[in-house]
Amino acid sequence: MKHIHRLLLIAFFFTCLTPAFASVSNEHEHETQQESHKKKKFEPGNFIMDHIADAYDWHVFSYGDFHFTAPLPVIVYSEQSGFHVFMSSNFHHGHSSYKGFELAKEGEYRGKVVEMVNGHQVRPFDISMTKNVVSMLLSMIFLLWVFLSVAKAYTKRKGLEPKGLQAYLEPIIVFVIDEIAKPAIGEKKYKKFVPFLLTIFFFIWLNNLMGLVPFIPGGANVTGNITITMVLALFTFIITTVNGNKNYWKHIFNTPGVPWWLKYPIPLMPLVELMGVFTKPFVLMVRLFANITAGHMIVLAFVSLIFIFGEMSPALGMGTSVISVFFVIFMDVLELLVALIQAYVFTLLSALYFGMAVEEHH
């Protein structure tokens, strides 16, 4: 019960803070869909990048040239005109400007909200509710509902056999504790880190699964956003650094068993070890981002083959579609496994870093 309550507090803080980083640094939108019919050739690169990027609206469905999207709130601060809050539908899929703001169609800020100042594009301070932000809020609400329900069930059914959500979640929670936290951190100190480990495990797993759902409320590429994975890794880095004991820092700056000439007068080994402190969270960040993004890109690449060959010949496009759909289904099934594996790997590596930080000298 104590772990679940701590888990809920960390989940709330964690999922509320992360969107602020995400929305400021990476708020890509789908390229103007209504202009697609004007293009002479299908551009697979733009098609793939537009679908894995963040957006200011949420695409629901398309029928011919009609595209139905759910607009999201745009929240920006301009040094010239102050705060502005309006719906992304005012941009009309990028065709129109609104109050001096528009969606950049090319260049450094392509797909982002910019303000035209003296004929130049200026990026305002942007904390808009993009698709990734809304998706994380939905996952936060779902996680809170699930774990509050489970906590309430444990209170009412103390000592009884688990039922309902309890029965489904208890084996997973026990697995994270017994197979990740205890072996990596140790029997004596693992309890301190269990709430965080459970939080990142369920947060990553849930958002990975939501990203595989092709319709609202799914389809957002949350864990395929480098900013999101950076914040996840940053939490691991901070917890590791704050909890590092005397033995941990001694192994970094005065590694036992290493010849003195590798430490003095040129601190070669301390520099290598100190670099490792920063490269470990960097690896966490890139590993999750790269694996999730690569999976989405492969699926979209197979879809793109249908249109590429369809431009050559309708019959060739139809024939290719059979093979492409087969591989898309195969990749989607594989992605279900990858979604779980990536959550497991991130949680396991975080636990190992925590274990190294609190390990006592033997």
What are the defining features of this structure?
362 residues, mainly alpha, 3-stranded antiparallel β-sheet, 9 helices, 8 strands, 59% helix
Give an account of the 3D structure.
The protein is mostly helical and 362 residues long. 59% of the residues lie in helices and 10% in strands. The protein has nine helices and eight strands. It has a three-stranded antiparallel β-sheet. Strands 5-6-7 form a three-stranded antiparallel β-sheet, with no helix packed on it. Strand 1 and strand 2 form a beta hairpin. Helix 3 packs across helix 5, helix 4 packs across helix 9 and helix 5 packs antiparallel against helix 9. The chain starts with a helix and ends with a helix.
Short overview:
This protein is mainly alpha-helical.
Looking at how many chains there are and whether they match, the oligomeric state comes to: single chain
Percent of residues in helices: 55-70%
What is the 3D shape? globular
Strand order of the largest sheet: 4-3-8
Distance between the termini: 33 Å
N-to-C series of helices and strands: HHEEEEEEEEHHHHHHH
List the helices and strands and how they pair.
Elements: H1 2-25, H2 44-52, E1 57-63, E2 66-71, E3 73-78, E4 82-87, E5 101-103, E6 113-117, E7 120-122, E8 125-126, H3 131-156, H4 165-185, H5 194-212, H6 226-243, H7 246-253, H8 268-312, H9 314-358
Helix pairs in contact: 1-3, 1-5, 1-6, 2-8, 3-5, 4-5, 4-9, 5-9, 6-8, 6-9, 8-9
